[in-house]
Amino acid sequence: MQEWANQLCENRQFGSKMTDSKYFTTTKKGEIFELKAELNSDKKEKKKEAVKKVIASMTVGKDVSALFPDVVNCMQTDNLELKKLVYLYLMNYAKSQPDMAIMAVNTFVKDCEDPNPLIRALAVRTMGCIRVDKITEYLCEPLRKCLKDEDPYVRKTAAVCVAKLHDINAQLVEDQGFLDTLKDLISDSNPMVVANAVAALSEIAESHPNSNLLDLNPQSINKLLTALNECTEWGQIFILDCLANYTPRDDRESQSICERVTPRLSHANSAVVLSAVKVLMKFMEMLPKDLDYYGTLLKKLAPPLVTLLSAEPELQYVALRNINLIVQKRPEILKHEMKVFFVKYNDPIYVKLEKLDIMIRLASQANIAQVLAELKEYATEVDVDFVRKAVRAIGRCAIKVEQSAERCVSTLLDLIQTKVNYVVQEAIVVIKDIFRKYPNKYESVIATLCENLDSLDEPEARAAMIWIVGEYAERIDNADELLESFLEGFHDESTQVQLQLLTAIVKLFLKKPTETQELVQQVLSLATQDSDNPDLRDRGYIYWRLLSTDPVAAKEVVLAEKPLISEETDLIEPTLLEELICHIGTLASVYHKPPSAFVEGSRGVQHKRIPIRSGSGESSESQDTGGAPGATEAPAAVIPSQGDLLGDLLNLDLTPPTSTAGAPPGPPMPMGGMDLLGGGLDSLLGGDIGGSPSMGSGFGAPAAVMPSSLNAPVGGGLGDLFDLGGGVGMPMGTFVPPKTLWLPAMKGKGLEIMGTFARRAGVIQMEMTLTNKAMSVMTDFAIQFNRNSFGLAPAGPLQVPTPLSPNQTIDVSLPLNNGGPVMKMEPLNNLQVAVKNNIDVFYFSCQYPISMLFVEDGKMDRQVFLATWKDIPNENEAQFQINDCHLNSDAASNKLQGSNVFTIAKRTVEGQDMLYQSMKLTNGICVLTELRVQTGSPTYTVSLKCRAAEVSQCVFQCYEAALKN
Amino acid sequence: MYCSCCFSLPNSSGFSVATMNGQLKKCHIAITSFIDSCSPFLIPSSLSPSLCDSSHNLDSLPIVAVEMIHSLFLINHSGDIFLEKHWKSVIGRSVCDYFFEAKEKAAEPEDVPPVLQTPHHYLISIYRDRLFFLSVIQTEAPPLFVIEFLHRVVETFQDYFGECSETVIKDNVVTVYELLEEMLDNGFPLATESNILKEMIRPPTILRTMVNTLTGTSNFEERLPSGQLSTIPWRRSGVKYTNNEAYFDVIEEIDAIVDKSGTTVCAEIQGVIEACVKLTGMPDLTLSFMNPRLLDDVSFHPCVRFKRWEAERVLSFIPPDGNFTLMSYHVNAQNLVAIPVYVKQNISFFESGSGGRLDLTAGPKQTMGKTVEGLVITVHMPKAVLSASLTATQGSYTYDPATKVLVWDIGRLNPQKLPNLRGSLSLQAGAPKPEDNPSINIALKIQQLAISGLKVNRLDMYGEKYKPFKGVKYVTKAGKFQVRT
User: How far is A559 from chain B (nearest CA, A)?
Assistant: First the structure.
């Protein structure tokens, strides 16, 4: 028996020696050399061991690419395992060793003919991973055969390979007709092949936003739905995501698709479930609400969503982010499921915070008692962030559910009694908001709040407390003492507190003028004379002036009735929500941002929209489904930023009283207008795509073409509104150079293009006049740019109302974005353009003034300017002279501001005005200049500093152009 | 809108000099093919060798990636990357720095957010068995898809190597690599079913490793597995057993929050039916329940025929071979969830802040006449609690002053003699009275009971002639079972 055990023990040791970990132990010194020798050994076994060692090194990130030729030499072997190992290596390194990879081509081609389907598939798969142009030529024939292989395993592998090849050389894939073959595979008898073909096509379509690759029609949808039931879970995800892009013709089709997708809700794979939810959420919009099926569907959606919450925490997190959207869109689905969102002690913090957010969204009169009890419980947990958020949540509940306000306030008071410092501070911040929402109701608690004055050490809480004291000064006997106590350390306070203190004392003075004169003088002098902060100083001066000229007016302004705060300021703006619903399950839904806003290299931004219910002719109904994003009015209080509600509120109160004073209660900006612009909001959030091109596309609004000349002013108007919001006196718009001849008719086979560039409302527009000087009509216009220095690319298709008949002239304006590929051009602002029409493709190049790229937020802080100026080495400084300019410095500053060149400071030395200016390019490059204007002299001197010195010349040109026009 | 096919020029190099107004002479880049607006124009290598060779230039261009999961990094508990796999180009390890930053910030490894945004990539990670599986993706991809895939990777490792640990992965690194390659192709999952994988890549066993080394045979299957492409991808053909058996375990976990006073705040049951089916041939099974109405929120293994479930409420399926999860379900109707035990607790700290008292008693509540076993009560103490001096009438307790966790392992719950744990807690000198309440978690096990009341009625087999052994087992456990104090 003992002997047996010993033997076993020995075997163990023997066994453990046999594991791969031995490959990790090779010594560093001469390792590569040794491996090289082994790889070239005659013994098969030794070769295999050597390749394994190479792979082991690869897995831990060692660079073994130097062994490429030796490993490739091992490829010609009958030993499948060795072959496979070599393939593994090849896939990893082929990209960095393209020329070497070509050595392997013959073997690949041979393997693609192998009788064993496994080898055929392996070869075609590996070949597709080698991203070398030269190899792709050899790949075409084998790939074509494999796409029609008798074995479905090979076919499905080949389908994926088409997508790989497309990524390397799209043109080749099109020329070779692989796309058509791929489309044929959608009708393949094997569901796995169908799924992979769909996946490949979706991926290709993503890089071809305008192509009609996945031509979804009722027949193809039917095929997809059939394959959906039979293919693997991953294939189901691809098919469901593809289905989600389809727009059913009518509610009946919509219903039948929903019926066939519903079983996916019971799939064990949560990604399948969420993709199915996406399809259902989208198509549901088309169903009439009175339909029985609609109600059934609503009921069916809840359980799978709840089930997602019992999965692993990572899955829960993604699910919760999506549920957050679903709850906003259709609160009825989960309104009875409040309890599943209750936070468990051992949930990770990221899950806890998300659950809390959804709890507030679901809070209603029916469940508020439960919710409050929970929130109160959470406020005693360990995690400080979570506790704070729980306290804020109580405040949000109070604002959201009016009937519960009283309970919320008493809960908050209980929490204040705990004397836990951060709990008290959060509670005071939210109580301030409750006062704003329900004035003259809960002021009795002020006394309790005042007791905690000394423990407040966070600016937000201090500011909130000061606001309360100022606002209710008449009810607080010792308000002046309280405020005075804050005043002692005035200069050590944060700006937020300083501003609030200033306002509060002015309020106090207006309410109790007799006792507080000294106090108000003290604060005004602190704010105006001893402070460096311009906001504080300006506010101080305004109050001072107001109080000294007309105390009655001051009272009207400062003590004006404040607009009530809205309960749902944290909701996602409806059009964005619509888009996000179409992106359920994606990263966009996790970040609650449109994909265009953050995915790098997101090709061709497609704004997805929920289809509108159509057909039955009850237009009023489609309105109240909320499914017509273009037509429904946005709720008045929508604030585009998703920032914390409470933060917003405080900011609102902090804005200089001038803006709230005269204005009637209501939002300061006419936000309702934005919704009408469709994509407009996305462009504000996303920042890179013009509002105009997406306008027509989404909601089947008047045929896709909209005269683009009409779009521009609309966009401009929007921009103006925001400029107003910015509060700076805006001078005339951006300087637009006159149009120049870009493509003469002779070279354009009759097409003449004159053009210029303009920046309107933050969007670069390429404005062109197209003239048809040929004898025949022109149609099918399209435009494309070569790579250029700043990645300019058309933000949408060229919208030319066609046909362009002979001698007709048309103005078009094409919005551009900066999402295109980048390559440095010479000169820097050169742009190579290709325009296509039914006749030919024409190429020309033009130069854009660099001022088009100056962004609206290019104004630098003074301190930053100074620091940056010092920081940039002197060799980057360039100096230019501008002659014959007869503007004075203010006019020059105004003119330049129109081109987003911002004057930060002005200094006058011995009759010479020095303007310090900054601008920022779309790619983040900042340019700093000093403009010297000698009174009475027509010559300006521009000194310019920039980290990227190449731009100097272009900037100088645009200074000259802007100043002289 | 345009069709890009008619957009290219037949001879790309011919036009460039002629039409570009001479600009091109200066710059050696020509528009050669007219492709999609966002992908870069292609530069023929023949025209500009300098550009193609210099990797610097290529790197600065936005690389348009296609696949979903670009790379995978395995990171151990202490933050070392011990394995990396790239499905396309190699992404430098520095991308993980963003993850390490987040890990640094998180209090516990479990608290690292699963989705992280970096300037050029997205990092999606899961934390399993004290390892991080970190995937790098470049384009918009469904995060659940990625997370589910990562879970599948972990399960496959567990299945192949018995556990999923750094040591075992390093020991089998080549197999691991082969597996990863087989599971994902260009971002598309290829073969994730364990039985298919096992036919392609044999799991290592000590015996096989020895035999392989001695005889030089490989652990790699030379032929395409037959089951791969049948319409039932989860089952291979030609399965043979001498003992045909089919066992089903109905496992239910109770997730509940009970408040101070013993009232249930919320409670739900997560159930799964785990199957172990070893049957010859292509059996077609039907499993029916006594009370299928309980099940309104279910998710099934792909083998289950959904239509039959919808119509008749029976599970009809051709089972995978071996172990698999047949279905999972969720019962959250409050009245159906029985709470098997109660904990009477009194944990208090003295106002002075010098210490406190603890008194816990556990007792049976709704056990349906069964015995509660494996009862363990875990208390997460406030940070200030230094040590505990307690007496247990049953079982043993430990207090870990580092993690502040008190574990009381009771074992079997005797209804006649309720277990009690009481004594004093001592606080750090000078620490104030703790602000947060301790939280109590309960673990337990009840054999031969599905607490929801679910009962299997019968199992029938069609399609094969032999008579299999059949068995159903029930067990109830506590899941996230929490008592507030």
Answer: 41
